[in-house]
Amino acid sequence: MSTTADIRSAYTLKSPSHNARLTEVGRGTPMGELLRRYWHPVGLSSDAVDTPRPVKILGEELILFRDGQGRAGLVYPRCCHRGTTLYYGKVEERGIRCCYHGWLFDVEGHCLEMPCEPNPTGPQCQRVRQPWYPVEERYGLVFAYLGPPERKPVLPRYECLEVMEPGEFVEADDSSIGSGGIVIAPCNWLQHFENVVDPYHVPILHGTFSGPQFVEQMAAFPKVKFEYGGQGVKSTSIRPGPDGKRFRRVTEAVVPTLRVVPNPRVAQYGMVESIGWTLPIDDTHYRIYVAGRVREKGELAKFKSRYNGKAWAELTAAEHQKFPGDVEAQVGQGPITFHSEEHLMSSDQGVSMLRILLQKQIDIVASGGDPLGVTFDEAEAYVRFDAGQYLDEASA
Q1: Which of 34, 42, 172, 367 is the right S-S partner for 140, CB 3.0 to 4.6 Å?
Q2: Among 35-39, 207-211, 261-265, 344-348, which is the least confidently predicted range?
Q3: Residue 317 neighbours by CB distance under 10 Å
């Protein structure tokens, strides 16, 4: 006979909690300090223009612009003179000018002019500097480094974006391809990043539950192997392929936030064609910047998921409930999921391995070291992935 103690009622639940070390990204937090040892995309190159653009990354509000000499700049929004925002500033040939008293700053925060002073370009300009962050442009994206200046690494290059077939070029996209359809997701970045090494959700969420959303091969339940790769966690999924061959799909979650995922909607075989950076905007919002090899402009946008034959934004509330995808599943975990209420199983091995890897990198940074993937040598900053989709002989 059951007793009261055998019955698990919701009434008995303890106050839930999240793993703050892994999820919170502000300056001074363990994860925030880890993430600040890497470069992150803060916008498309086309976003850096002669009109100040507000951006938010790792909980920090910043201003992105491009001066008249073509240099991109990323500065703290409060003018170091009297604190008004540079959002209302004027971008000029040499930098950005504050609307309040006209102080002019270059892309590295140097004060060039103080128009209200007797000597506008005098030595007093050397006594102040607008807070700023270094930026570099690559693959159609503007990357920023928000960490300690003395530990600034080399901005990596990636083989899958460097080695191209004739007619291919690299295109960048800011619409969060891979998120499931939403541009800025109202949940913690890790809820999406962990999804990269969770292949078992594919035949459930994207198959039997919401109807086939990818190519036919993806509908089969895979045999999966998880392992640590060079800079992250790798999952290899094996499914039946055409003509008796074996369909081998390799995805990687690479530190700090890279989702290296072959396009599941295209039966294309070979090296992964794109990289997505899962950018934590703050603790409860993220977006994805993508760079990929394409043959025609706008091709990346075709990678977006469709549900019931529609784009995510076109679904009604009833259709979102009937045909849920990654957005619904991940945002449905809450702004920051309650890790205290989880019950991880064997199919969650990739998620567990990723969390362990991130914890180790946090500890390395806390002890004064440099985390995985950080290098200060241009020759070593060339990254190769195993990710891709391949057809092997069945006996392979």
Answers
A1: 172
A2: 207-211
A3: 7
CA separation for the pair 163, 327 (Å, rounded)? 32
Contacts of residue 244, Cβ cutoff 8 Å, sequence gap at least 6: 394
Q: Are 313 and 216 in contact (CB under 8 A)?
A: no
- Helix or strand run (H / E) with residue 306: strand 306-307
The single residue listed with the structure tokens 């995922």 is 261
Gyration radius (Cα) of the chain, Å: 23
In this structure, are 298 and 370 located in the same domain?
Answer: yes
- Residue 105 belongs to domain spanning: 48-137
Q: 382-383 and 270-271: which strand pairing?
A: unpaired
- The three-state secondary structure class of 152 is coil
What pLDDT, in 10s, does the model give residues 122-145?
Answer: 999 999 999 999 999 999 999 999
Give the span between the Cα atoms of 97 and 351, in whole angstroms.
47
CB atoms within 10 A of CB 378: 11
Say whether both 176 and 210 belong to one domain. yes
d(CA 30, CA 358): 10
Strands 223-228 and 169-173: unpaired
Lowest mean pLDDT among 5-9, 40-44, 246-250: 5-9
